[in-house]
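Hey team,

Sharing the Poly-beta-hydroxybutyrate-responsive repressor run so nobody has to redo it. Sequence (136 residues) first:
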Amino acid sequence: MESKQEQTKKSKTTNMGTPKNFLIPIMLLHLRDWNSHGYELMEKIAQFGIESVDQGNFYRMLRQLEKDALVSSEWDVSSGGPAKRIYSITEAGEQYLEVWAGSLSHYQKMLDQFFNLYNPFFSPYKSSSQTKEDND
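Structure output:
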């Protein structure tokens, strides 16, 4: 039976080289196309496929992104309800997003090579309906 320390060490080594904080570039990507309230941004991220975002952590991340000058915010008092912050991406955020896009492109190439070696007949881009049609 492995100790907790050995299990932690194993999990750290298996995660080496994987992208960290994938939520940040997704947030910036959505803010690139439109300015948004935090709640709206959370909804867009859920539609993207990331549904397990803790609301408290999400807003802490937004505040940290603002401290890091990757996003800016201003108060929206135009609506009838309470004031809300509207977040937008900054030039530094655009540059950060560009670096992430380059990194993800590199990871995509490595993943393609992995799946080509793993199973040359497997195509991760085909939907299950396409696979059914191909087999009919």
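The beta strands are 36-37, 71-76, 84-89.

Ping me if you want the raw files.
A.
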